[in-house]
Every structure is written in C-alpha cells, then in structure tokens.
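Methods — Computational structure assignment.
A single polypeptide chain was analysed. Its primary sequence is given first, followed by the predicted tertiary structure written as structure tokens.
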Amino acid sequence: MPSSSLAAPLDVELRPDRPALLRVDPPDDATAWAARYREALRAQVTEHGALLVRGLGLRDAGQAGAVLARLAGELMPEREAFAPREAHGPGLYSSTPWPANQPMCMHHELSYRLEVPGLLLFACLTPPEQGGATAVADAADVLEALPAGLTERFAEEGWLLTRTYNEEIGASLAEAFGTEDRDAIERYCRANAIDARWLPDGSLRTEQRRCAVVEHPLTGRRCWFNQIAFLNEWTLAPEVREYLVDEYGADSLPFNTRYGDGSPIGEDVVRLLNDTYEEHTRREPWQAGDLMLVDNIGTAHSREAFTGERRVLVGMAEPRRLADSCPTGEASRR
C-alpha cells in the first residue's frame, strides 16, 4: 500500500455513529508500518479526533508497545492516577480497572493535571465477548450542545476536583505520586497547583481547580475538556455511592467534583452532562489487533460495560501544559 494512499480522504471510512475507521492489510512488520505511516495517521487524528486502525494484528504487549512508541515517541508515565493500573513497559498500561458491568462515562484522560496527554493510544489484544467499546465524542460539539448558562459558569469558575487518598479505594499515594515521601508529595502538589493537607489519620486530602473549557492548541476550537461528570458522586452506581458516603462521609469521598467556587454539583447537572455525551457518542466494537488513536483534548472517550475477557493496553503521549488549564494559577481554597 503506497504511503500517500493513507492521507487520501477515501481511505478512511466515515460514519456518524462510529470513529473514523481505516482498514489495512496485515503488514509483515507492524512496527515498521507504524513508522512509515506515522505522519499520515496523525493527520487523520487531527482531522477526525479519533482513528481506529483495523488489520494490524497486534498480538502482545511487546509488539503493541513498540508500535505505540513509533507512532507517538516517548510515552508518558502516569501521575495522579485515580485508580492503579498494571504496567506493561515504559508508559504502557492496562486499561483502568473498573467493574465490567459498569460503564466508565465520557471523560478526557488526566484532564485534572496541569500537564495533560495530548494523544491517547489504545491497543486491543483481546476483545470482549459483548460490549466494552472505547467510544468517543467530539468535545467541541458537546460544548455547543450544552446550555450556555452552564458552560459559561464553568468557563468562568472552572471545576474543582477533591480527593481523599486512603488504603482501600482508588490509587495509593505511591501509585498516584510515585512516592510515599511526604515532603516529595508536598513539593509535587505545590508545583502542580494542588492544595494538599494531611488528615489526623495520616490520609491526604487534595483540591485542585482546573478549567472546564479550553482552546485546542492545534485547531483553535473551544472544547469541553474535563472530568466533571466522570469523577462526580452522582455518576456512581447508587449502591456504590451509598456505600462510599456511609463509609467515608459526604465530604470525604475518595474523589468528587464541584463547581469552581466549591459548591456541589447537582445530580440533575451530572445527568445532563452524561445525556449530552451520549447524544454525541460514536462507537465501534473492538476486534483483536485493533489500534485506536484519540486526540485527548478534542475528543472525550468512555468504556462501555462488557462481558468476557477484555485486554486493552493504553499509552499516553504528547504532554501539553495548556495555557488555560488552571483558572487562577493556583488551587482554589474553600
């Protein structure tokens, strides 16, 4: 297949209900293929927000890691993870552990960090029996579809992420910060506009305020870029939320989101956000060996409920420190 053909619009199948899809003949060397077509593939991601490549035949973590590195260069180590992942090589991780019968709603990976991944790469080694798609939604379209009054408030105030680290739920301190040393954790928090305080029981509580609406660094489009719905208590299954509130208290949940001024976000707002995402969702079931590239700033992604084994590896690349990622340049204090 000549390299120029990948850049031609007709090579990519476009449908409104699924990500852009590129079918390829299985190459003898997937890593060499990725190096050869890197720029053409990246151009398609910039144009369409996400690209599913079918036919590469990715079989194992070593091959997947080599292909991802060819496409994206050095992969990012994860920091501030909200749940532990299994590492399969430098910057190559298992997908976030989450109950198979519960969907992970739309979000932008690590959008609560000051330095965010601009590109996500997914490699499907084992597809689920049913469900389990990594669906996508255009962030500019979602912003336009949401009520102006709501988006204007979030654009002005930003959004607040609160976390309480403990030994039972979510990522541990070592998994989130790469260390358990208190001084090192405090230095990281100061450098990354995170308000942190140690509680009497030794756990850590943090707050960080980030922008909910950002300008895409390449396209200039205004994007709804956050994890307001995904990390909010009202997105949890009712029985899970009830357990966490009973166990930790309403103000000390392992993670939650608020308006930028610290006031709570109502269940109706979270439902509206998730319903709007669903109206703009594009999905395609995984097949073994698939590769997906996602523009993490311009495109939200989700993971749908599934049955059977599902093995999808994830890499993050192109770290970007967005000029408008933090509304005030410092963590808000309530």
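Note: Residues 1-10, 329-334 have pLDDT under 50 and may be disordered.
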